[in-house]
Amino acid sequence: MSTRKTLSPSEANEAITPLLELSSMHFTSQALHTFVKLGIPDIIGCKKVSLDEIGFKISPNVNRDALLRTLKLLVSAEILHYASDELESEHYFQLTNTGALLQSKESDQPSMASGIKHWMEEPLWNAWLSLPEYIQGTLKDEKNLDPFERANGISSDYYYNAEDHPESLKFANDFVRFVSDSEIHNIATCIDWSQYEGKTILDIGGHNGKVLEAVAASLHHSNNIDFKCLDLPNIIDGIEQTSDFVDLIGGNILDESTVPPADVIVMKHFLDRCMWDEEQTLNILKTCHDKIPDDGRVILGEAVIPDCSQAKPSSRLEISLDALYMLVGRERQRTESEWRALADASGFTIDEIMKTSSPTCSLIVMKKQ
Q1: Which of 26, 34, 84, 159 is 20 to 30 A from 276 (CA-CA)?
Q2: H or E stretch including 246?
Q3: Can you tell me the distance from the alpha carbon of 283 to that of 255, in angstroms, rounded to the nearest whole number?
Q4: Cα–Cα distance measured from residue 341 to residue 336, given in angstroms and rounded to the nearest whole number
Q5: Distance between CA 187 and CA 268 in Å, rounded?
Q6: Tens of pLDDT along 274-332?
Q7: pLDDT tens, 181-194?
Q8: What does the CA dihedral 35, 37, 42, 48 come to, rounded to 10 degrees?
């Protein structure tokens, strides 16, 4: 008996277009890479620019037809707006708001340009081609190299270095900053921090206090909140520019005696699996439990990946980013049910999980059981 799933002609016909759309998504990704690599977002800027002007600034030998077809693909992806009217014989283009984020970073406006270059660079792109072998695995006495190391002969931790691949390192670091700045903005604006007036808020593992500085700024530095940031003493000692609104404290979350009490504890990506094993994570949360009052809160800025039963097109970006981490050997991000189990095991219950505009940073609000 055949084990194949057999479709009727009408069912097969209905499935063709979605499958073609899904399998051709990388066409747009590569067009985006070309768009950024050639500097076209900066050529267009805030103006309405003709195809010939774009081509002239790219190269004296520009392939006009290839340029037009690539830009048309990006019009369909809503990166560009086709700005010609019926009376104009020339093709004109403008950046959409999404396309504007592909301009180079020259102001406070975020830029995803380096992120596009990072994702589309050959080392990371080629890692996808080694995913089948990674899934198949190896013999018990052999190391199952992650896809990036399989494709490049070196792990991502060693590939991205200033001496051998400075440009690649810059793309990667710029992208991390792009994501982090968005996360910090969401932490500062998605919670009503004024409810903690007269309280103490402690950021654990917050380096230079940038997260709480953003929270203070969102309140126009007017609320009577005591902001504190705890990090390792050598980290705190190495910070040159300190905040006027955040008290930086040297300590170690694994040494409970160095952690001050607080009404609210904040942690942004501090509990990632790549940093701690599950026992250590539980101990960190139990320390937090001991340091807050009965009505206190712990607020985590973390990725929350849907469980398989909740995997839908609306959550594709979160799941895709977790797959990207897999390529470079990073631990899997936790699902909602795993976060709830972790909270329960450490004496907390999850009061709320707030999705933000950043797919890597939902806000998990925990209270004591």
Answers
A1: 159
A2: strand 246-250
A3: 10
A4: 9
A5: 9
A6: 889 999 999 999 999 999 999 999 999 999 999 888 889 888 999 999 999 999 999 89
A7: 999 999 999 999 99
A8: -20
